[in-house]
Design brief:
Helix content: 25-40%
Structural class: alpha+beta
Distance between the termini: 38 Å
CATH class: Alpha Beta
Number of strands: 4
CATH topology: Nucleotidyltransferase, domain 5
CATH architecture: 2-Layer Sandwich
Strand content: 15-25%
Low-confidence stretches: none
Pfam families: Ribosomal_L18p
Mean pLDDT: 91
Strand order of the largest sheet: 3-2-1-4
Keywords: Ribonucleoprotein, Ribosomal protein, RNA-binding, rRNA-binding
Number of helices: 3
Family: Belongs to the universal ribosomal protein uL18 family.
Subunit structure: Part of the 50S ribosomal subunit; part of the 5S rRNA/L5/L18/L25 subcomplex. Contacts the 5S and 23S rRNAs.
Order of helices and strands: HEEEHEH
Largest sheet: 4 strands, mixed
Protein name: Large ribosomal subunit protein uL18
Length: 119
């Protein structure tokens, strides 16, 4: 019985998230979603079920609307790091979802680290 690509993606996403829940020590989760056209990230407090901060390549103030590349992902990473510090968050767990840690996802994580967020 063959699984579809979507089923495999969902299994991978749940596997990553469940591992994060086991080691979560009250730190928020930095959750990434990547589509074919955009990338977005949310800082989520799972204890209270609240989104603390978010950033997306769709935001006009970042100046990257319509660009889907590594540089755009890095700008989103810098933006989430700034917004996390403004929300009083210094450390978070990186939830890559079902996406592989390379390319845009890696660039976003590295830019968030450079912005002062401990992942």
């Amino acid at each position: 019985m063959a699984n579809s690509k979507r089923d495999l993606f969902l299994k991978r996403r749940l596997r990553v998230r469940n591992k994060l829940r086991k080691v979560n020590a009250g730190r928020p989760r930095l959750s990434v979603h990547r589509s074919n056209k955009n990338i977005s990230v949310q800082l989520i407090d799972d204890v209270n079920g609240v989104t603390l901060a978010s950033a997306s390549s769709l935001e006009k103030e970042l100046g990257i609307v319509g660009k889907n590349n590594v540089e755009a992902a890095a700008k989103v990473g810098q933006a989430i790091a700034e917004r996390a510090r403004a929300a009083g968050v210094e450390a978070a767990y990186f939830d890559r979802g079902g996406f592989l840690f390379h390319g845009k996802v890696k660039a976003l994580a590295e830019a968030a680290r450079e912005g002062g967020l401990k992942l």
